[in-house]
Amino acid sequence: MEYKNKIVLITGGTGSFGLALLESLLLTEVAEVRILSRDENKQHELRENYRDERVKCYIGDVRIVDSIKDSFQGVDYIFHAAALKQVPSCEFFPIEAVRTNILGTENVLSCAAENCVESVVFLSTDKAVYPINAMGLSKALMEKVVGGYYHTRSKNSKTRAIITRYGNVIGSRGSVIPKFINQLKSGSDITLTEPNMTRFLMSLDEAIDLVHFAFDNGGSGDILIQKAPAAKIADIANAVKILCGKNLDYPSKILGARHGEKMHEVLIGSEEISRSIELGNYIKIFPDERELDYESYFYNSNSSNSLGNVICYDSSNADQLNYNEIIDFLKKDKHIQAIM
User: Fold this and answer.
1) Catalytic residues
2) By 3-state DSSP, what share of the chain in percent is helix, strand and coil, each rounded to 5?
3) CB 17 within 8 A of CB 207
4) Strand pairing of 252-254 and 190-192?
C-alpha cells in the first residue's frame, strides 16, 4: 500500500466500512482523505471524532453526477463504498437500488476517468452472484458496468477499475450479529430467519485488508475475493448467546426467510472458476477477454480450472464453523467486542 502524499476519496465514507477504511488510511502518510456522502449529520460526527486536518468532507450524492464532480478533482485513488445494501429495502424500492448501485457506479467511474484518477476499487457482494433479489441484481449490474468499462474504455483511460466481492461483514451496520447482541441486551427473544441458512463471515478488518490487497494486486476488470469461512445462522445465534452470557436454550423465534433471501450465498460462480487463480488467502477472477465476435472461440477454446473441481464457491461448500469456532472468531473482532 503506497498512499504517501496521495489524495484518497471514499464514497459512502460515513458508513461502517468507510470509517474503518478512514482509520486505516490515517495510519499512513496519506496527504488527504476525502469523505463523500449525503448525510451532513454523520459528517459532523465524523469531524468531531477525527480531528485530523487531512480529513475533508464533501456533501454529494453519487446518483447526481453534478453533486460529486468537485470532490474528484486532484484525487489519486477512490474506494467506492456508497450503496444501498439492505435486501428488504431494495426489494420494496428497487428503482432506488438502480439509481444508487448502478447509475451511481457509472457516475463515479465516469468522473474518475475524466479526472485521470489512477485507481478505483469498487465494493460488491456475494449477492451479485446468481442474484435473486433487487440488491443482488443491482450489484451484479454494478459489476457489469465496471466490466463494460474494462472492455470499451479502459484502453484509452489512465484509470484502473477493480472490484472486490464480499460475504457478510460481521461488524457492519445492519448485519445480524449486532442485531442479536442488541436483542439479548434488551431481554428480547433472538429472531432467526431460517436456522440452516448459511452465510460467509468476514470481520470488518478483513474487509479493509481485502480492499488494500485489491489495490496492490488487482488489474483493471479483475474481481478480488477473500477466502472466507461460513456458518449456519443457528450456530451464529448460539455463539452470540454464549458470548453474552446466556444459555443455549435462551428463546429464539423462527421468522422464515425475508423478501429476496437465499438459503446459501455464492462468492464465485461456476462460470468464473476457469478464469480464477488463488493468491494465498485471496482469489482473483480475471475479466472475460472474449470480444463480441464469438466465432473464434468455437474453434480456439482454451479454458482451465485453476481451483480444481470446484463447481462454485458458495456458503454451503465453504469451510463451516461450529458455534465454538464462531465464538473464537467473534472474540478476535474489536468492532464486535466494542458493542458487547
Assistant:
1) 127
2) 40, 20, 40
3) yes
4) parallel
Dihedral angle computed from the Cα positions of residues 21, 26, 29 and 30, in that order, rounded to the nearest 10 degrees: 60
Per-residue pLDDT of 288-297, as tens digits, reads 887 776 665 5
The whole-angstrom separation of Cα 158 and Cα 156 is 7
Phi, psi at 269, each rounded to 5°: -75, 160
Q: Which strand (E) or helix (H) includes residue 334?
A: helix 334-339
Per-residue pLDDT reduced to its tens digit, 263-293 = 999 999 999 998 999 999 999 999 988 777 6
Q: Which of 98, 86, 164, 167 is nearest to 137 (CA)?
A: 98
User: Helix 233-243 vs helix 176-185: angle between axes, to the nearest 10 degrees?
Assistant: 40
What is the spatial distance between Cα 110 and Cα 157, in angstroms, rounded to a whole number? 10
Q: pTM of the prediction?
A: 0.91
Give me the chain's average pLDDT, please. Answer: 91
Q: Name the nearest CA neighbour of 32 among 5, 1, 59, 72.
A: 5
pLDDT digits (tens, 9 = 90+) for 297-340: 555 555 444 555 557 899 998 999 998 899 898 888 887 877 77
